[in-house]
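Researcher: Final request for today, and then I'll write up notes for the group meeting. The sequence and the SMILES for guanosine-5'-triphosphate follow.
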Amino acid sequence: MGWRCGLIGLPNAGKTTIFNALTAGRAETAIYPFSTIVPNTGVVPVPDDRLEKLGELLRPQKLTSTTIEFVDVAGLIAGASRGEGLGNQFLANLRDVDLLVHVVRCFQALDCPHPLSRLDPVRDVEVVETELFLADLEVLGRYQIKLEKRSRSGDKAAAVALAGAAKLAEALNQGVWAREAPLSAGDREHLKEVSLLTNKPYLFVANVSETEFPEGPHLRALKDLGSARQVPVVPILGDLEAELLELAEEERQEFLKSLQLPEWGIKRLIRESYQLLKLVTFYTIVGPEVRAWTAPLNTKAPKAAGQVHSDMEKGFIRAEVMDFNDLTRLGSPARVKEAGLLHVEGKDYTIRDGEVLYFRFQR
Ligand SMILES: Nc1nc2c(ncn2[C@@H]2O[C@H](COP(=O)(O)OP(=O)(O)OP(=O)(O)O)[C@@H](O)[C@H]2O)c(=O)[nH]1
Ligand SMILES: [Mg+2]
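Model: Predicted protein-guanosine-5'-triphosphate complex:
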């Protein structure tokens, strides 16, 4: 299963720069706005300390991370819903992403003008979010027309959904995110067909310059906004992090130290995205390969097995489960078994974060 994050923001906020830093890509960036027209997509391994530890302990021939995909689209400007700039049709590319990452410009660059002249991250957020609301209202409006037709032809469920849609439209008009709108679980169930951007988990990336780091006024303003709204803020030194990918790992580490940073922003962004998606990580040891997998919270063992191979879900018999901590403490799967800490679990078992699983199945 693929997890996807969409990058949004004003033109020249550095979305593509950060996309390149994340994916080690070479998508075109430019000092003029609207340099991205066709979306860029790239798959990124999720950094995972536990997987590294399993690698050191078990020395497999192959160590495979789980991945997350990033999608970089064009910039949004005020009036995009009326066709300004590149319009907002390209947002359709983000309807099926699982998470929105809003790249907010917190860097000054004389050669790369801000599309609204002055640097002001809080205003930029408002401009972009207004366009998200307008885009969602458009999509919801089209859905309401469909529901009305269905309701007129006697579809009772459509009539109930219509009432929920009206409540949702009212919330969006007042600037309330769809995911925070006061809707009942029933309303949400009826509206699950319609995919709204403001219904997605969301975080800010502050694209900062070195002068703004670790605590310049623009970054501070964005952090304050983030804490007031409970939206995480991840600072990234966009240009620098993208450029330094050219260097050897050792030199990159030196740089990190000289900047007194615990880790690169892009690494933190991948981790934060993964956490916001409320995913759990489980591990399998199959032949020469130790591999990390991703599943939504509360996934049953057969579904998790299905991620590895669809036959494993169909023919699922049982899962043999070890805890990562037991395995690293005792040193090998055999010792975990000897200590009586290998649990055998059936079809109804809900897997938990950090478990190491062997799936038994019939072919
Ligand atoms: N000084 C500085 N310049 C940056 C930084 N991040 C990006 N830039 C520059 O800003 C310009 C625009 O960056 P892009 O990554 O193309 O911006 P974008 O948001 O993808 O823009 P559009 O695709 O046009 O919407 C480029 O010239 C980058 O080199 C940064 O952190 N510091
Ligand atoms: Mg771009």
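Model: The pocket of magnesium ion (ligand 2) is lined by residues 15-16, 35-36, 72 (CB under 6 Å). The longest strand covers residues 99-106.
Researcher: Thanks, that's everything.
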